[in-house]
Amino acid sequence: MTQDIMELGRELAEVTRLIEDDDVPATLDRFVQRVVRMLPDCEEAAIAVLSEAGPELISSHRIAADPLEEQSRSELAKELLHHGGPLHDVLTYGEPHHLSDAAADPRWPEFSAAMVKAGVCSCLLLPLPSSRGSAGAFALFSSKVGAFEDTTYDVVLLFAMHAGVAFDNAQLFHHAKALVGQLQTALETRELIGQATGLLMHKYGLGSDVAFQVLKRGSQNANVKVREVAAQFIVAQERGTLPEALTRYGLALHH
Fold first, then answer.
1. Is residue 253 assigned to a domain?
2. C-alpha distances in angstroms, 112 versus 53, 141, 243?
């Protein structure tokens, strides 16, 4: 048992560690794969979120099933996302749901029937704790009746908490990365426009405001961003074709 706990600790630490090149789905894919590997009797794990269109699976992993079961598994996945099913309740109200024996559970008849058809007996659905307010849920499936009870349930709660952390961290990391990218683009745009403005000022004796207005007018004439016009003018000047570039953008300047 001590060895199992130590192994679980290592798994939880590993699964919440982000790799720079990972995106949110990749991080969560890694997570659900480890969950299936670690949890007793767990044959499939999935993470879902509540989007504007309704419940949506963003990551899932399962032990390879018999090819004959693929169709019924696909039907189960569709039923899982159904508006009136248990997943929708978990995502909407944050309440966990446990079906220990689908064949004997009357609460969601269509979902239970889809489980039985797919050879799934037990299902555990838990809300993901997320500080960002994104509604997420953790779903586990087993072909064993009574799976995910007692000690296993406590372990699953640990996984759910770490899934929430992984979800938060992945989103925060990539939001920050996107912001850095946007700032970098803004700085590059500012530099390009500054160079092109200075070029027009020097070449045609224009004031800074007039030179910038020339760039804007070229942008409007060609229906492209000012950044693109500026970049084209800089390249054209290096090639000695600036007058031709001005003409392409519907501009006429004289020394």
1. no
2. 23, 12, 73
Which residue, chain included where needed, has tokens 């849920």?
137
Task: Name the residue with tokens 């946007």.
Answer: 182
Structural domain that includes position 6: 2-176
Neighbours of 231 (CB within 10 A): 17
Q: Which is nearest to 226 in space by CA: 193, 255, 184, 200?
A: 193
Query: Are 115 and 210 in a shared domain?
Result: no
For residue 66, the 8-state DSSP code is: P
pLDDT tens digits, one per residue of 203-234:
888 888 888 898 999 889 989 999 999 999 99
Residue-wise pLDDT for 25-62, tens only, equals 777 787 788 888 888 889 999 988 887 788 888 888 88
**Residue 147 and residue 192 in one domain:** no
Report the distance separating Cα 107 and Cα 93, nearest Å. Answer: 16
Tokens of residue 18, six digits: 């982000």
- What is the CATH classification number for the domain harbouring 69? 3.30.450.40
